[in-house]
Amino acid sequence: MKNAIIAGIVVIFILIVILLLVYMKADFNASVIDEGNVREIVIDAKRFEYSPNVIKIKEGERIRIKVNNLDTEHGMSIPELGFESHDEVGAEFVFDKKGTFDFYCHHYCGEGHSQMKGVIIVE
C-alpha cells in the first residue's frame, strides 16, 4: 500500500514537470546559435508577443532570423530596413546601420496584432 502511494506521488510529480516544460516552451526555444559567420536567432512568436522581444547585434554582423510560430502564422518585418522573415527557414541579413529598429508582425493574427512588436538594437 505504501509503495503504491509513493508511486502515485512520483507519477503526479513527473506529470507536473512535463506540463511546466510544455507551458514554458517559449522560454526554452528562444535561442541564439553561432554558425561561423552567420549568427542564427530563433524568435518564438505567439499571440501577441515575441520571445525574445529585444535583440542586440553588432553592426555588420550577418544574422539569420527564424520565426518559430507557436499558435498561428506570424512574421517579422522591419520596414525601415526592408527586412522580412516569416518562418522557421529564416532570412539572412547584414545589419550595416547602427540604431534601434522596431520590428512588427506582418501577418494579421487577431485583435492584439498591432501590439505585437519587438526591437533590434544594432551597436
Overview of this protein structure:
The structure is a single chain. The protein is an alpha+beta fold. The chain has a single domain, classed as Sandwich (Immunoglobulin-like), CATH 2.60.40. Strands 1, 2, 3, 5 and 8 form a 5-stranded mixed beta sheet that branches. Strands 4-10-9 form a 3-stranded mixed beta sheet, with no helix packed on it. Strand 6 and strand 7 form a beta hairpin. The relative contact order is 0.19.
In short:
With 123 residues, the chain is α+β, with helices and mostly antiparallel strands. The protein has two helices and ten strands. It has helices at residues 2-23, 25-29, and strands at 31-35, 38-46, 49-51, 54-57, 62-69, 76-78, 83-85, 91-94, 99-104, 117-122.
Sum up the structure in keywords:
123 residues, Immunoglobulin-like, five-stranded mixed beta sheet
The tally of strands reads: 10
Question: On the 0-100 scale, what is the average pLDDT?
Answer: 79
Overall geometry comes to elongated
Number of helices: 2
Distance between the termini: 63 Å
CATH superfamily: Cupredoxins -  blue copper proteins
Write down the CATH class. Answer: Mainly Beta
Determine the CATH topology. Answer: Immunoglobulin-like
Note the main sheet: 5 strands, mixed
Q: Which CATH architecture would you pick? A: Sandwich
Structural class: alpha+beta
Rg of Cα set: 19 Å
